[in-house]
UniProtKB/TrEMBL annotation:
Biological source species: Loa loa
Transmembrane regions listed in the UniProt entry: none
Lineage top rank: taxon: Eukaryota
The protein's name in its UniProt record: Ubiquitin-conjugating enzyme family protein
Organismal lineage: Eukaryota, Metazoa, Ecdysozoa, Nematoda, Chromadorea
One GO BP: protein modification by small protein conjugation
PANTHER family: UBIQUITIN-CONJUGATING ENZYME E2 (PTHR24067)
Entries under PROSITE patterns matching the protein: UBC_2 (PS50127)
Length: 199
């Protein structure tokens, strides 16, 4: 009887755990789906982002270098890694296009990323996250956490000029799939190239 009771308790515990995981997945999926819908209707100037798979837990993004910065003219491709616990846990962020600010392909430590979950507010949106990250990249040279690198303004300008060539060659598959799957790409082009990056 004792073994049977223990088995039943273990089964209940496992069932509750599966239910929690399923509900967490559903909540993250619903929230990220809504976030994507909002970004399509009201994109962040200088930034475009979209989910890369059906789970919605992996997103691609492109940031346009802001005018009057060494990044001007650059197009920087990267990814956001969400977990099933979003929006309670922030995403990790990576950038693949060489830029002189962050190490390509490595998770980047910023105060609102998964490296610092205590700083995160679940009400913050994907758009707000990317807006803050873009400004951190362009204007906060003192921020040097994990994944950050130092380089001169001239080096950053060289990377900016080479960014599209890099995206078309080394990052070609990721970048092409990302852009081709943007059903709102025509609208994105207008917003992306004509408006300054908000300060």
């Amino acid at each position: 009887m004792a073994y049977r009771a223990a088995d039943e308790m273990a089964h209940i515990h496992l069932s509750n755990e599966k239910t929690h995981i399923r509900l967490s997945n559903e909540k993250a999926h619903i929230r990220l789906s809504n976030e994507y819908s909002e970004l399509k209707k009201d994109p962040v100037p200088g930034v475009v982002a979209k989910p890369l798979d059906e789970s919605l837990l992996l997103w691609g993004y492109v940031i346009r270098g802001a005018k009057d910065t060494p990044f001007d003219g650059g197009l920087y491709y990267g990814e956001l890694e969400f977990t099933k616990d979003f929006p309670y846990i922030p995403p990790h962020i990576l950038m693949y296009t060489p830029n002189g600010r962050f190490m390509p392909g490595e998770r980047i430590c910023v105060s609102i990323s998964a490296f610092h979950p205590a700083n995160w507010d679940p009400s913050w949106t994907v758009g707000a996250f990317l807006h803050c990250f873009a400004n951190f990249m362009m204007f906060d040279e003192k921020g040097m956490g994990m994944g950050a690198i130092g380089s001169s303004a001239e080096q950053k300008r060289v990377f900016a000029k080479q960014s599209m060539l890099y995206n078309k060659t080394v990052c070609f598959d990721l970048f092409k799939i990302f852009l081709n799957s943007c059903s709102f790409f025509s609208r994105f082009q207008t917003i992306f190239f004509q408006f300054p990056l908000a300060a």
